[in-house]
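note to self: dont lose this again. the chain is below, predicted strucutre after it. 136 aa total, dont forget to put it in the shared folder this time
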Amino acid sequence: MKSYFTKIKPLSGTNYSEIYPKAMALYKNIASKTKRRPYVRSAYFNKDKIFLDYFWDHIRQKNTHDRVRRLKYYACALDLIQNSRIAPSSHPNPMRRSEILHRFIGIAGDNSLFYVQIKEDKRCNKHFISVLPVKK
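---
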């Protein structure tokens, strides 16, 4: 399957207190542009809105080590969502048949591989769920 090459490198830092403020600054920059729910426009989905709020709920459920691992790729994931036109692998959600899960593959600026998951619900709303770096 094809993957999107981003020039953006993962956020630098080794612990949660270094990476979280950088990722939150990116989110707040996007959130300041709208009065309602923060979103980015996706090139693949014909400039449809991809809402970002589910990601933060999802990341709060993870342990600190996993949060750091995922938040490092937050900037790369936003770039992939906004600019990638490469088709993802899509399949129905095993928990809810009314949802479709899309998984994009990306390669960061430091040549590391990561996945971006987007959930599309029945009302055609799309939500950025997670970013997963591939273990080496």
